[in-house]
Design goal:
Elements (H helix, E strand, L loop, with lengths): L9 H15 L2 H7 L1 H23 L7 H7 L1
Helix pairs in contact: 1-3
Length: 72
């Protein structure tokens, strides 16, 4: 068994981050900083998880649009 504060890859780390972000987010803080900003952060984290899962477990590569834009 793996301790709760450890992870074996980036996908697991990001999933843990997302779970904690959603579990501990307070509505007052979300509304103060902006609902759309909060939702965008969640969307970006889910996208990063998908990319990392693909890197870790899939045989085909996918294009990360952020990395592609940064390399141009």
């Amino acid at each position: 068994d793996c301790p709760l504060n450890l992870y074996s890859n980036e996908a697991e780390r990001l999933c843990g981050y997302l779970i904690s972000r959603l579990n501990y987010a307070r509505m007052e803080d979300i509304l103060e900083s902006g609902l759309s900003e909060f939702l965008e952060e969640i969307r970006e984290t889910i996208n990063a998880i998908a990319i990392e899962l693909n890197k870790q477990y899939m045989l085909t590569s996918i294009v990360d649009p952020v990395e592609q834009m940064q390399s141009q």
